[in-house]
Amino acid sequence: MSSGGCCGEVYSCVLDYSTPRIALIKSRKIGLLNRLIQLLILAYVIGWVFVWEKGYQDFDTVVSSVTSKVKGVSITNTSNLGLRIWDVADYIIPAQEENAFFVMTNLILTQDQKQGHCAELPDASTICSSTHKCTPGYVDSHSSGVQTGRCVPYNSTVNTCEVFAWCPVENDTVLPKPAFLKDAVNFTVLVKNNIWYPKFNFSKRNILPNISSTYLKTCQYNRVSDPFCPIFRLGSIVEEAGESFQDMAIQGGVMGIQISWNCDLDKKHTSCVPKYSFRRLDNRELDHDVSPGYNFRFAKYYKDANNTELRTLMKVYGIRFDILVFGTAGKFDIIPTMINIGSGVALLGVATVLCDIVVFHFFKKRYYYREKKYKHVKDYEELSNGGSEGSNP
Q: d(Cα 179, Cα 30) in Å, to the nearest integer?
């Protein structure tokens, strides 16, 4: 293309002015296409924007607070502890958490530890046959203490490096099966949830107005028969998520209690109710079961008759229940209503654009229709100076 042609194109794009021209095309095919596109746009605006997405409402997200109270007792009879009863003060650790609670289900107990010198737990790095393998002052992230450099008997068959540590060292290689507190499956938790939508100054709690104190003492959540009772059996929570409580109790895990508050405030406030759902949050892959479950350690300290400091070390396994609250509330507002109506009216103009594209590019008589639609008009001043009006292309 010549430089003159390029300049002409640029001149035409920059300085030419276009104004719409209405052409009435009497064609059933084109008329039906136009009405079909308009119908689809109306269906989208009315069905999706206004009915499904409630485009006539203003929305707000939930602000929430949660407290929980677990109840239940369990009895155990072991060689280390004998006959013992376990209540809330024993198995809820810590006593209060934010939007969560932890229930101990399994336990490895190391009693009467005191600081001193003893043999390290046997493994590939601590088993020794002489002092040459033991390095004084050596310690790593898996050590129970600091090596002294000596090789001493761990039992009648194995020698290990001696360490300065809390003795005897913990042996956590054997995990109790079934779980130590397998009766936790029948423990219950009362979940109290208060929500607030600040934009609408609307607040509510999951203990609904029709729930009485008498009813609260006897009810238990059931998805079908009692979906609004705020008291949950721990075993049922895990089972609702498709898991086995007794299997999960051995190594522990993390469960989610989800409370959904999706409220239409244009309706009666009694229709704004919570919906509960449950899922396991620490999903494990069967082919990659590395570091599974949930556990931690803590100790209880005391002194004996000789004023020597002792401790009982506990490695605790259990299920952490995270309470997750989410939701939105909507209420009629004239501003989003008018914005969406305006957007819908503007979208109707798309029907004309689409019809023009089809008619002027895909119909057999597209050149004829273009001739009727577009007309090239010269500047009036040029015509006054002796020019003539250009013909249609």
A: 74
